[in-house]
Amino acid sequence: MQPLHRRHLLQLGGTMLGGMTLPGLLQAESIQPRSRRATAKSVVYLHQFGGPSQYETFDMKPDAPAEIRGSFKPISSSVPGTFVCEMLPRLAKLAHRYTLIRSVQHTMKNHNSAAYVSLSGYTPPVDDIRLRDTLDLFPAFGSVVDHLSPARPGVPSFVSYPYVLRDGSITPGQHASFLGKKHNPLFFTQDPNSPDFRLPELTLPQHLTLDRLESRTQVMRLLDEQSKLLETSALAQGMDESVQRAVSMLTSPGLRKAFDLSSEPAALRDRYGRTTYGQSCLLARRLVEAGAKFLNVYLSPSIGGTSGWDTHGFNNQPMDPILKKHLLPLTDQAVSAFLEDLDDRGLLDSTLVVWMGEFGRTPRINKLAGRDHWPQCYTVLLAGGGTKPGMVYGSSDKQGAYPASGLVTPGDIAASMFEALGIASDTHIRDRLNRPFPIANGKPILDVFA
């Protein structure tokens, strides 16, 4: 028998660890959750790492001084009285299909700590660029969903792609943490825009057939023969408890089909944009159709010379060209196509789309012609999943610096996502010390739901 090579084992292990749960395991303890009527079957969390500027997107201040309002102009949208940036014309035409929350606030000013808040709903113990990922921190939203309300067999509850978020060190909040690795996402970094895009985690090693994989005993025998690797590889540990669902996913025609973007019409792929982000959004639609329940789609790495939306004006590159040439057109094309495609297929009503970064940007433009970190007030976009379309919730003050009404926290956003999926936001889970914690550090924003 040929050995199971390390890269194959890690590929197989990645699938086993990605969204692998057995219904009934590690259910929330100590507090019985109240019942909740679901308004969504799936959540697609479009996380904008770096922090998009509210001034250059959805909360413009045209009457503020020039050093605050910036150079872009507002344009009318499909909702009377609601204005968005002139660089977002497609999204302006779709304003009647989404809700804007213009009063989100927290206190973390560094990327890793702020992104942890946006990925888990919880505030870390310190606001420090050196914040490290540990199993003592709170799990990702999708891991909580997989823990409490997993998808049907053969489908991952939680999928995340195509980057690992980091600011120096890896950003916490991207995995299952103390819930256990079996609730980790099905995660991959392959580029959906690549001509040869495929998912290695769903690709069988050459010497393994479907018949052999369908035998749990045979799979475990192959793994046991690699005892040395099992002893030294952290990824390999604990795979036994999730191997049945791993095999189910590996042999699921529906899931394998979802990753075949080549089956989509070229015109539709062009509509999303032949970019990593555009094709990632298209893949999200296909995964929603396949039955995935929570998707983290990250916009992160270097775009136009900066790290995602981190538009300080690094390397003496002013903010406006990066926004104008790269970030705003990319967003306008991909997100508008995603919302329209979901709606055309009758999926928007049952899919909650959340467009959100870890914070906003400072009122004043700095000396490098950029904006700095600003968690005190920023904007989040919600669409579908039972939300009220065409609504603006909350407001910022005249300079966009602080909420003037309707204060919302990331914990409130988290509670709203859980409630939309039919998971009561006051449900408790237990950490490694057996301490109970509510899954959301906030309250659902009931006014934005129909």
Automatic annotation (TrEMBL):
Stored InterPro entries: Alkaline_phosphatase_core_sf, DUF1501, TAT_signal
The scientific name of the source species is: Tuwongella immobilis
Pfam families named in the record: DUF1501
Give the stretches traversing the membrane.
Answer: none
Protein name (Swiss-Prot/TrEMBL): DUF1501 domain-containing protein
